[in-house]
TrEMBL record, chain A:
CDD domains: corrinoid_protein_B12-BD. Gene3D superfamilies: Cobalamin-binding domain (3.40.50.280), Methionine synthase domain (1.10.1240.10). One of its GO terms (biological process) is tetrahydrofolate metabolic process. It comes from the Bacteria. Belongs to the methylamine corrinoid protein family. Keywords: Cobalt, Metal-binding. This is Cobalamin-binding protein. GO terms for molecular function: cobalamin binding; metal ion binding; methionine synthase activity. Pfam families: B12-binding (PF02310), B12-binding_2 (PF02607). Residues 1-95 form the B12-binding N-terminal domain. Residues 96-222 form the B12-binding domain. One of its GO terms (cellular component) is cytosol. InterPro entries: Cbl-bd_cap (IPR003759), Cobalamin-bd (IPR006158), Cobalamin-bd_sf (IPR036724), Met_Synthase/Corrinoid (IPR050554), Meth_synthase_dom (IPR036594).
UniProtKB/TrEMBL annotation, chain B:
Its EC number is 2.1.1.-. This is MtaA/CmuA family methyltransferase. GO terms for biological process: methanogenesis; methylation; one-carbon metabolic process; porphyrin-containing compound biosynthetic process. Residues 6-340 form the Uroporphyrinogen decarboxylase (URO-D) domain. It holds the Pfam family URO-D. It comes from Candidatus Abyssobacteria bacterium SURF_17.
Length: 222, 346
């Protein structure tokens, strides 16, 4: 087998392993990537992340549900923990952006937030995770402290998403350029518009895609 | 004809499966408003731990707007508190801040960890809710239906166990989840008996944790439906089954559990639902209590009421708790639109 064919086979094993939530297969393939001297960052992006993206697609099609996504995430982390220490320094320094993320006060649901956070980590963002039930002003403080380009707010319940509108106002007052993404079950494009956010996404992979677009547009402006 | 009947009688007739042609507007979930808080001077954060404040606030939506029920409690953490989870009541937050109590710490890992109290009527805030039910009965004197709600077993499991663990073992070891759900089903039945004895006219079982945004419909059928069947078989009626979030894929399961009425939110396609369940079951919904009622205009409200009616609901009923900051003109528009739709139907 040629080197390229072997590499493609391993990338496919990583992606399939994530998709079928086979932690051991993913770990084995990740170790093989390192043993054969293939690029760790490429294996993360074109192997692990690709598998998660496919899982996100299946979620949108109602083939997969939250339990399946959580098991995919476990498999992804099994590979990420092996590969990440071997990402070349120059790739590591090429931060895709700085993100502040958290679930808003009054809400303790963090599964969606954690999945989005994982995709950001996979792609090489610098992620500042504030956790769940986060007081509104904490988002503003953290954005200022880290100079984050992107703030991501999560809420699972209609009864807790209201705080988002105020956080968005508070952040915009201090820093009008920062991009704000909101997500969670009650969030629709309509809510995004009403609250003055910049976007939302219905899966973790789409959240990453949106985030990459937002950061790129910011950097173009800058 | 329903001339001469009280609002309470009409609501209870409907929930017992008797349609009398009159379109009602009520809820099985929280519906207090900041207007009600202003009128009574009661802070939201204090109403969860004080029976007289809870009862007084619960009656305001009927008194101010003619909404055809009074429902307590206002939060969804009563059951988790009963099995020992500490609750955050946000009592130190800003007086105008509306925050619902949340579970601070999830203390259950498996069925073996769950200790149901030997005397449920004295556990957690159960005595407070039963006292508030008594106070509401005294206040409303049988004129207005008094509702309460209890979380469904899967939702309680999600509130008391690490949710990601619960969801993963639902796939990997469903039999372990079934054990947990069986214990919580017992809790739900006992709680329903306690509330019913204290004067609750109807009870809504809220099983939103098992909606199809989260759980595969096949797993709902396998794990949740049998428990709900037991609840609707054994607990005192009338009982409503409410599931917000995606629910079309589990409508046949929901319809099989024996509920007096089914409640869904704005994510449900009502026409599809009617196709699945047929004309007989009482269907409540699916008015959007935030995007329309709070954020919309009175004409949005009017349009949304018409959509509910066209979709075949038996009562215009918010798909979730009404967010308290609802503008007065929108509440009035809701009640007026239902009244007009009622005339159109008769």
């Amino acid at each position: 087998m040629t080197n390229d064919a072997k590499k493609d086979e391993l990338l496919k094993k990583l992606a399939d392993g994530v998709l079928k939530f086979e932690e051991e297969e993913v770990a084995t393939a990740a170790n093989e990537v390192l043993a054969l001297g293939f690029d760790a960052y490429e294996a993360i992006m074109n192997g692990l992340a690709k598998g998660m993206e496919e899982a996100g697609r299946l979620y949108e099609e109602e083939e997969y549900f939250v339990p399946e996504l959580l098991l995919c995430a476990d498999a992804l982390y099994a590979g990420l923990n092996i590969l990440r220490p071997h990402v070349k320094i120059e790739d590591r320094q090429k931060s895709r952006g700085v993100v502040v993320i958290g679930t808003v006060q009054g809400d303790v649901h963090d599964i969606g937030k954690n999945l989005v956070k994982m995709m950001f980590e996979v792609a090489g963002f610098e992620v500042h995770d504030l956790g769940k039930d986060v007081p509104l002003e904490k988002f503003v403080e953290e954005q200022l402290k880290t100079n984050a380009e992107l703030v991501c707010l999560s809420a699972m319940m209609t009864t807790s998403m209201l705080g988002m509108e105020r956080i968005i106002k508070m952040i915009r007052e201090k820093n009008p350029e920062v991009k704000i993404m909101i997500g969670g079950a009650p969030i629709t494009q309509e809510v995004v518009k009403k609250f003055g956010a910049d976007g939302t996404a219905n899966s973790a992979s789409n959240a990453l895609r949106e985030a990459l677009k937002m950061v790129a547009s910011l950097r173009k402006m800058g | 004809m329903s001339v001469g009947k009280t609002s309470r009688e009409k609501v209870l007739e409907l929930l017992n499966g008797k349609r009398n042609g009159e379109l009602l507007c009520f809820s099985g979930m929280g519906n207090v408003t900041t207007e009600g808080m202003k009128q009574t001077g009661i802070r939201f954060a204090e109403s969860h731990t004080d029976a007289s404040k809870m009862a007084a606030l619960a009656a305001t939506t009927h008194k101010l707007f003619g909404f055809e029920c009074a429902v307590i409690p206002f939060d969804v953490a009563i059951e988790a508190e009963i099995v020992g989870c500490p609750i955050n009541f946000y009592t130190r937050s800003h007086p105008l801040e509306i925050l619902y109590p949340t579970v601070k710490e999830k203390v259950i890992r498996s069925a073996g960890d769950i200790k149901l109290p030997s005397d449920l009527s004295r556990a957690g805030r159960v005595p407070l809710v039963t006292e508030a039910l008594n106070l509401l009965s005294d206040d409303l004197k049988g004129a207005v239906a008094i509702g309460t709600y209890i979380m469904g077993p899967f939702t309680i499991a999600g509130q008391t166990m690490e949710l990601s663990d619960l969801l993963k073992i639902s796939l990997k070891k469903p039999e372990e989840v079934a054990e947990v759900l069986a214990v919580y089903t017992e809790l739900v039945i006992q709680l329903a008996e306690t509330y019913s004895a204290a004067g609750a006219d109807y009870i809504t079982i809220r099983e939103m944790g098992a909606c199809s945004d989260v759980l595969r419909p096949a797993l709902f059928k396998q794990l949740v439906e049998p428990q709900l069947r037991r609840i609707f078989d054994q607990a005192p009626h009338p009982l409503v089954l409410h599931i917000c979030g995606k629910s079309n894929g589990i409508m046949d399961s929901m319809n099989r559990v024996g509920a007096g009425a089914l409640s869904v939110d704005q994510k449900n396609d009502l026409r599809e639902t009617r196709k699945t369940i047929g004309p007989k079951p009482i269907l409540l919904g699916n008015f959007d209590p935030f995007n329309i009622l709070v954020k919309g205009t009175p004409s949005d409200v009017k349009r949304a009421v018409q959509e509910c009616v066209n979709g075949g609901v038996d009562a215009v009923w918010p798909g979730c708790d009404i967010w308290p900051t609802v503008p007065t003109e929108n509440m009035n528009a809701l009640m007026q639109a239902v009244k007009n739709a009622r005339k159109g139907r008769n």
